[in-house]
Amino acid sequence: MNQLSIFCICSPLLISFGILFVGFVAATPEECNVTGGEGIQMCCKHKRELETKEKQEEYENNMKNCFTKYFGDIEDPPADDVKMSLMECVGECFFNASGLLTPDLKLSMEKINSKDDMIDPDPKWKSIDEAAVKTCFDKSVTEGTGSTKCKSGSFQFLKCVLRERFLNCPKDAWTESNECKTYRGVVEKCPNVIPGVA
């Protein structure tokens, strides 16, 4: 598996937010390393309208540029704590490039709420997205203060929103299977696991 695993998740803007660096997630207990098979990406299915090609390319370029900025010159895999610190910086860089941070690099609820492509207008997803943003904003700001470099909480916000969407997936979008049931249990138990939504 290459370093970038792209999950098609929630709104068009979050497609790029969901370029998750699976190899760079913090160390977790063995029971939390159960990633499931390819099918787990289809546990929570989300039909969405794609962003314009130009906007999608902009998001993807922003993410690639931010990833290269912090990981591009690293030849040997860094220690787990360094990886996490770099991931926080990649998240902050991307959120800043996407206009979601204040000039002093703090998460902005006003800017997040003003992004048309942050919250899905589909009624069955809209309330989930709104609740996720509300739940994750304060939590991520607090958690983001631990990094020595990038303290905006952008990466923590992303992780929290993706987990909230997955764990609150509408019934008619959820795949009833033993594989998905097992994987959901892993996500519930393990706060560092970042699930994808297809």
TrEMBL record:
Its main location: secreted. It is found in: Secreted. Residues 1-27 form the signal peptide. One of its GO terms (molecular function) is odorant binding. Belongs to the PBP/GOBP family. InterPro entries: Odorant-binding_protein, PBP_GOBP_sf. This is Odorant binding protein 24. Keywords: Secreted, Signal. One of its GO terms (cellular component) is extracellular region.
